Amino acid sequence: MAIRVKEPARGVKNRLYVELLQGMWFTLKKLLGWTDVTIEYPEEKRVVYPRFRGKHALTVDDNGRLRCLACYCCARVCPPKCIRIVAKETDDPMEKMPESYEIDLLRCAFCGLCVEACPCGALIMTEDYDFTAFSREELVMNIEKLRMDKR
Amino acid sequence: MKMVVQYIVYLGVPLIFLAVVFTIVAYLSYVERKMGAFMQIRVGPNRAGPWGILQPIADAIKFLFKEDVIVDTKDKALYVFAPAIIFIATFVALAALPFGMSFSFMGINVEMNVVNISVGVLFVVAFSGIAVYGIVLGGWASGSKYPLLGAMRSAAQVLSYEVPLTLTIAIMVLTYNTFDLTKIADLQQGTLLGFLPRWGVFLQPVAFLVFIASAFAEANRIPFDLPEEESVLVSGYHTEYSSMKFAMLFMAEYGHMILASGLIVLFFLGGWHLPYINASSIVSAFAAIIPADWARLVTALLLFGVFFVKVCAVLFVYVWARWTFPRFRFDQLMSICWKVLVPVSMVDLVITAGVITWLYA
Ligand code: SF4
Ligand code: SF4
């Protein structure tokens, strides 16, 4: 059983359907205005806001070494568990470094928690948002693809 | 020799008409998208050619090469024939539309219509009514719920709106006292009360409004597009159709729009005649500078241009309304038809009949 809602009182304007004509006039004005707010995507790109969370990158220090210590903080905090790290030892007995470091961008939610969790600023997020590929494998990032030498 | 040329003309004029109709159909979809885009501050199709002008051609190629998915139902024959029924009914109805002044050029008769039917009005009404069979059968044979719902709505809607539509057509037939669309157009020359063009819209303004509303509903256009309501029914009766079958439904829909616009122009907007100027005076004006045969030819082409422009103007209103209005609820749709349009057109019919009897008495 439908609930009947009392319709608001209709004025003269409504009864004469002036509003229909007003609507037509509005769309006609827009039509003759010829403006658009479209960003023509592949040619033009949207300017991203500061702290935009795009594709990840691994930073390097002054000596050109990855800053990452393979501490697994990012992998542990990642909600969809899309970071996979294999650690290896370095010359320094106190430190490890990643032997492989993979982020599956197809599972990544771009939440940025990994970046927040990183104790040494090794993992950052760039402003790059248009990455596409023809296969799933290409979207699993490894050290070569993530490494960012200039900062 | 003359016979041969005569037959070529008989064949050629309808072919040219067909080409014009199909071009309008193709470019109407483009114009519709482009206009909608501008009204919504977008750009619309702009990749195929400059300003996307080749978009209809790209669409046609895509339709031709798409996989033709045939739904696995018991009513395959109906499923396949439904688009054909709609398509044929619509385009056969279009054949009865005259589109200009018939004339003779160097002894050759050039008829500006596909077929000259003395009861053209009835023919058009009959065939545009058949299209709803296609919709209902297609919706039924698709074997899924959304097309079926769309078909049911369409049956209810089109059958309801056919009543005021036919009543207004009856009013116009009474007014002009003929069923011949060519004569109806020719009767709209001259002036009314000395200053208005003698157009149907000034003779019968109420019938004009009712006719426009019902014609919108007949062609399943917003705000009466309940049978193919995208947000509720996916796309109604043509949900399960793909490839050329979909293209046929699509073309038939636009063909129906052209038909409705043509009828509006013929009944109410003076057909191919310019306001205040009679066709015969245009011919004699041209005859003063060029031979009479050529004068008739030029006039006929000019008047065809006038008809074309008028039809395009009405089509523009169709598209314009589509991007302006929201759609009705189904009960509103029905109550508008049965509580407003039908009584109004009935009263109008009675008044018209009374006035005409009084005038001729
Ligand atoms: S952005 Fe979020 S989902 Fe993506 S890798 Fe980092 S923690 Fe995981
Ligand atoms: S949290 Fe930072 S340092 Fe630790 S493994 Fe991840 S990227 Fe490397």
Describe this structure in words.
Chain A has 151 residues and is of the alpha+beta class. Chain A has helices at residues 12-15, 18-33, 73-77, 113-117, 143-146; strands at 56-59, 83-89, 96-104, 123-125, 140-141, 147-148. Chain A has a domain at 56-148: Alpha-Beta Plaits (2-Layer Sandwich). Chain A contains 5 helices and 6 strands; from the N terminus they run ααβαββαββαβ. The longest helix of chain A has 16 residues, at 18-33. Chain A is elongated, with a radius of gyration of 27 Å. The mean pLDDT of chain A is 86. Chain B has helices spanning 2-39, 55-65, 76-95, 120-141, 145-176, 181-186, 200-203, 205-218, 230-233, 243-268, 279-287, 292-322, 330-360; strands at 103-105, 108-110, 191-192, 196-197. In chain B, helix 1 packs across helix 10, helix 5 (145-176) packs antiparallel against helix 8 and helix 5 packs parallel to helix 13 (330-360). By secondary structure, chain B is mainly alpha-helical. Chain B contains 13 helices and 4 strands. Chain B has one domain (2-45, 70-360). The chains are: A alpha+beta (151), B mainly alpha (361). The interface between A and B is medium-sized, with 15 and 13 residues. The structure holds iron/sulfur cluster (2 copies). One iron/sulfur cluster binds at residues 68-74, 85, 117-118, 120, 122-123 of chain A.
Which descriptors apply to this entry?
heterodimer; A: 151 residues; alpha+beta; Alpha-Beta Plaits; three-stranded mixed sheet; three-stranded antiparallel sheet; 5 helices; 6 strands; B: 361 residues; mainly alpha; two-stranded antiparallel ribbon; two-stranded antiparallel sheet; 13 helices; 3% strand; binds iron/sulfur cluster
